[in-house]
Amino acid sequence: MPAPSARVVFLWHMHQPSYESPDGSPPAMPWVRLHATRAYRDLAWIFQDHPQVRMVVNFVPCLLDQLERVVAGSTDAFRELTRRDPATLTAEERRFLATHFFSCRQETLIDPLPRYAELLQHRDAVLSWSHQDLLDLQVHFNLAWLGPAARAEEPLLPALLRQGRNYTIAQRDGLLACQDRVCARILPEWRRLAASGQIELTTTPYYHPILPLLLDSDVARRCQPGAALPPRFSWPEDAREQVDRAVSRHTQLFGQPPRGLWPAEGSVSPEAVHLIHEAGLKWLATDEGILLHSLPPGTVREHVLCRPYRFSETGPLLLFRDRDLSDRIGFTYARDPASHAVADLLMRLEAAGRASLERRDHPPRGPVLLVALDGENPWEGYPDGGVEFLHLLCRQLETHPLLTTLLPRDLELAEATPLPRLHTGSWIESTFRIWIGGPVENRAWALLGAAREALAGALQGQHPRAAEAREALLGAEGSDWFWWFGDDFSTTQDELFDQLFRARLRRVYELLDLPVPPELYQRVDERRRTLTGDSDTVAVPAGFIQPALDGRVSGYYEWAGAVEVPLGGGRAAMYQGARRFSRLLYGFSLEQLFLRLDRLPASPTSEPHACRLRLLWGGEARPLEIDFVLPPDAQELAQPVRTRTADGLVLAVGKVLELAIPLEALGARPGELLELELLYEEDGHVVDRAPGQGRLRIRLPDENVFSWSWML
User: Fold this and answer.
1) Rg over CA atoms, the chain
2) DSSP per residue, 96-160
3) Could you write out the DSSP letters of every residue in 410-465?
């Protein structure tokens, strides 16, 4: 018998919600089409060059439905505006372009293109833009979303990049034709890779619902004791249909049923796992937090993570992802040279595998390590779309002496360790807090529950359009609507998500010839949102501040008048666990910009950390940096860690982190609009950033400061 190796499962999750309007109008958002021309095509293009490296790729069925329709010629609101003659755009449409046609990662997809960056700097003046300005924006937005594979396969795209500006309508239309061809290649290529045996394709419940909450929303109390919950939502038949239809659709598209499943948001419960088993699925994956909450307190993570489990003798295999390694690919390695990032990842995988082999706490054929993450969003942060990182990773894995890649379908049942208890929760904090328990989320659940009750009556009465109404309702059960409700995440398309959710529920009532509840014509989230990092609104501090830089909050008035930016996720479609900060505040004196980062946690180890804060801003090549050593238990420091740089930056670290930056160090003029980003590094790796994505828009005080400040 060969010596056991450390077996690594890489799982890439491809997911978009159903953007299609229930009234048949074109989808309001373009993200299926645009992600298709980057990650969905790019990963297949990269993996085909490394046939010995095996990967798991997960597609959500409602994404596949929309992708098929894109290939068949369906359009969306963004594409229609792209096709318009700039001379015919109304003032409202111009503002829409200025708001939404910069919806991509600035530092990797906008800043490298001088003309695109120039348009971003002047988007506040979009009503006075020339027709050529608008046409260049139409091209650049769509061009930015065409990834490395498309640029290698479509000769027009490199030519457009070289030209840079002054595009013609014919070039714009040719660009859209390139998009169509790229989208048409995606599903055939994934079918071919799956048929070769290199790729295992898996599924998710059809519309990406939180399966345990469909079965019974009250199970949230298991992981959120004391949380206020909405009226109970319990429709096991919906949960069963979401899973059964996913299996059926996957089989139809790819020619064989899936063996594995990534439950939406990694959400599991004993009841959900039983349902998944009944649907014929052989394995599923979720987060390490679920495993650790399922085992006795004090369990050593490293001693239990490197093997598969079974919750019952007849149930599916359970794999639990290594959160740290997964998050490093999603959030950290994009800013490192690819060679350093791959070396770091392989070193950590090898160390975990060797330690497990030495302890002999693994299955007979060797440890099993799961790296699972979003397969589409991370690559926007890599300068080349992740090409160098992924190619180098695959080449190293092809010849690695210890690590081999594994498809979970090849695991044997005998390798699984019994798991007597299974925690109920998701991959985020091992709870369902993001999707239920807050006032806005609970209101959405109440609206969903009322529509489901109406549907139940119609089904019982055999209403002729009950099946159509059921389809609209199933789409409204998806997790994405609840992701964007509340204060954890925000996007420039918040209102569109809100409208789509309510439109689906209204459609249920309309199809059933029932009165539409008036609340479905009002926003679910009617509260005024706190400023988010990439908001189009530039918040103005209520007055000057002069905090004492001592690493603590001495009183309310010290930061009264500052602007607050929550850091629970910003506009992110991805969630990064183990963040270092919860919110950012900023304000001014006459000479300085002050920043405060709240809830700096204790160091995760007993050793001091070499830390660095880097301040980036638009148009500036050299960041401002400040290095410091963060001792263990930094949150409880009796005396703050205080540091000063040659540029005049002053940093104090205690229970909070406070930073003073001389305005002259920014090299900006009074009244100028700056777009700032703070990066926080530990031991050379970016572990947090403020805001979560995008940049913070700050206007520096000028001679008119007294007109907008009332607390002087």
Assistant:
1) 26
2) HHHHHTT-S-IIIIITTSHHHHHHHHTGGGGGG--HHHHHHHHHHHHHHTS-HHHHHH-THHHHH
3) G--GGGPEE-S----B-SSTTS-TTTSSSHHHHHHHHHHHHHHHHHHHHHHTT-TT
Dist. CA 712–CA 699, nearest whole Å? 18
Residues 6 or more apart from 668 whose CB is under 8 A from it? 617, 674, 700
User: Rounded to whole angstroms, what are the CA distances from 222 to 268, 284, 423, 436, 537?
Assistant: 12, 21, 8, 13, 39
DSSP for 381-420? GSTTTTHHHHHHHHHHHHT-SSEEE--GGG--GGGPEE-S
Closest CA to 233 of 424, 439, 444, 519: 444
**Rounded to two decimals, what is the model's pTM?**
0.81
Nearest partner of 260 among 20, 13, 444, 94, judged by Cα: 13
Count of other CB atoms within 10 angstroms of residue 574: 17
CA distance 695 to 615: 11
3-state secondary structure of 63: helix
DSSP structural state of residue 37: I
CA distance 369 to 6: 7
- Reported as a pLDDT band with limits 50, 70 and 90, residue 600 is low
Euclidean distance between CA atoms 624 and 679, whole angstroms: 10
Give the mean pLDDT of 561-582. 63
Q: Which of 45, 71, 70 shows the shortest CA–CA distance to 151?
A: 45
Rounded Cα gap, residues 515 and 562, in angstroms: 46
Name the β-bridge partners of 625. 614
Short-list 648, 651, 10, 655, CA closest to 328: 10
Give the integer Cα–Cα distance in Å for 334 and 338: 8
**pLDDT tens by residue, 485-499:** 887 777 777 888 899
CA 110-114-119 angle, 5° bins = 70
Q: What is the phi/psi pair of residue 679, to 5°? A: -110, 130
Amino acid in the structure at residue 594: F
Work out the mean pLDDT of the chain and round it to a whole number: 88
Which structure tokens are listed for 537? 């609104």
Sign, Cα dihedral of 165, 168, 171, 172: positive
Using one digit for the tens of pLDDT, what is the confidence trace for 160-194?
A: 999 999 999 999 999 999 999 999 999 999 999 99
Strands 317-321 and 309-310 turn out to be antiparallel
Which residue matches tokens 């003032």? 91
- Round to whole Å and give the CA distance between 524 and 27: 20
How does DSSP classify residue 577? S
Q: For residue 275, what pLDDT is reported?
A: 97
C-alpha 30/C-alpha 356 separation (Å) is: 45
Residues in the chain, total: 712
Main-chain dihedrals φ then ψ at residue 237, nearest 5 degrees: -65, -30
